[in-house]
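pasting for the record
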Amino acid sequence: MNVNEIYRLVNYIADKDFSGNTLKPDDYNLLLKVVNINLFELEFENMVAVSQRENKPMDKIIYDSRGLREFIVRKNLVSTNDFGIFQFESDYRENITMFVREVEGNGPSGLVGTFAKKRIELVSFDEFSRRNENIISLYIPDHPIAFLEYGGVNFQIYPRNIRGIEHIYLIQPITPFFAFTIDSLGRIVYNYGASTQLRWNNYMHYKFAMLILKEMGINLRENQVIEYAQLEVQNHSK
């Protein structure tokens, strides 16, 4: 669904069975922004819980998630300093995993390439400080670690001689926007070209609409929203 179809759906539900509690476009845009963030956080927290419960790495869980799959990004990063400091990408939101990238091969006749090898463990600064008390465990090459520093702008990797990594992370969800004008009769006219659509998989659009309705004080299950959507499509096509 595009943002106009979602707007039409939530207002159809509100107007049909909930005393005409419909949304104005400006209020709808505010809820698009709020629900977009809330849904991302909800889905991510669910994935963290599954990862902890099943004792599986986050990357194994995220790739099985239909909700967050659209936001997964892989990037190869190279450090420009000798301190193992890497800067977060501008669209970074949540870490999934990191791998050390190493060169393999032995010349023109052999396969030469750069491959993701060892997993880098992301730890809290407190955990880093605890491990730092044991200098041997901190600098074991086979168990590299990373921690956030400088207000979350950079991350520090140990051992410091690691120069290349593959970073798999979730990007910041793009804020959807419903663009419109008001015609001479006071009617709302949707502007598709100036609007920003949901980045979410189509599978998540009904859940998105459900959370908008919840913010409006209308509590429905996702399957109920789907049933209303089918009715709205039938009525709109008449």
